[in-house]
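Per reviewer request, we include the raw input and output of the structure prediction for the construct analysed in the revised manuscript.
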Amino acid sequence: MAEHTCPETGAPMKRDVRPLTLTYKGESVTIDMPGWYCDSSGESLHSGKDMKVSDQALNRLKAAAEGLLSPEEIYRIRKKLRLSQTAAGVTIGGGPRAFQKYEKGVLLPSRAISSALMLLDHDPKGLKEERLDTRERSKENHKDWLGELLDRSKKLRSKLGPKKKKIEVFCRKTDELVEEIVFGEDLMRLCYGTKLGVRLTSKFFTKRWLSRAYGVYNDTRISKRKINDFVTKLGIDLEECEKPVKEYRTFNDFFARRLKADTRPIPDDPRKLLSSGDGRLLVFPSIDENSLSNVKWAPVYLMDLFNRDSALVERYRGGSCAILRLCPADYHRFHFPLSGTAGATKAVPGLLHSVSPYALEQKISVYALNKRTICPLETEEFGTVLLMEIGALGVGSIVQTYKSETQVARGDEKGYFKFGGSTTICFVERGKMTFDEDLIRNSAAGIETVVQMGESIGSLCP
């Protein structure tokens, strides 16, 4: 065994194992740390092999603090999936040698890898086809394994509550009523079709950790296989996409896709209020004294929606409001409907109920309960316009891409939603504008109108 002398005193150092306390984010652990020690100076020397002991212990401490999987849990789940370490690294992510390092504790898994493993632990059948050679398998046969939880439950369908809801919306382009394709309709029936379903959904499924975990999964390479099936089921026009579908790295990458520049033209008239995105629009020409009222919904009280901000309630009482509901098939980036100075976006914490008519018609005050954001836009023509984005069941994140306290032009991108159906709301002060007649007529009948980003939805009052 090589001899070591103390770099401070020159005295011989003794090979020993001594206690060492590691700390991370307020949590501590004491380990037996091997090394060469000098009793007189307190100095110590450690080899690379010695440092692995502390590195592994620190990684365990970090994993516990950050909610990541431990090496033992990673090993257990991999074995449950019947994957080799190499196959797990290639299939789930990290590379061919990643799982060897995860299970030894010398490398921490990313949050995406950890969340994907937790979800696969819940439904290992989701990787049943991954046991085949990746070069030989047919991508068309793969499904979103979370969606398969319902697809495989044939016996459950008779217990999902009422029959499927026929949701009709008015299409401006074709000037006719069309039936909406509801993505994940069985899930909506399960969650909102019965009183028991609503209670369970409110208690468990609307929590942020679940949507966050699913959002993290949609950021992994595995999720890319969902894209083709998603496009086919919902009839998404790939000609509008900024780049070919094969170039999207993950499902969320495709879901938050940008469009070609000429697909959403922006009108020049500054007196026009534009739609902030693609979706189904419902307008309120004059807000009731204290709430947004729709015959099919529970009242949405402004004081609750504005997070108890009485100044905002006073400003927009009697004003105009446009609610744009985005479905999973829609383009999921949202834009500024007017030019002006964009203030900071304030986040309001909350639940993550679905924004589907299935949930709204259960008399749940979704918009006031859900996670949401609030942003003032100071405009020359329309005064101070208030822009809101509402999170929803399955939405991993609401991402803002603009810079606050800067001048923005109508049609400029404000941000985007990750996976899920979502909603934007626009408030305009009283007496500033009028909505287009077709929107007023349809909304009065409780019918949403399909619009695209950049379309005119209203005009400045004369």
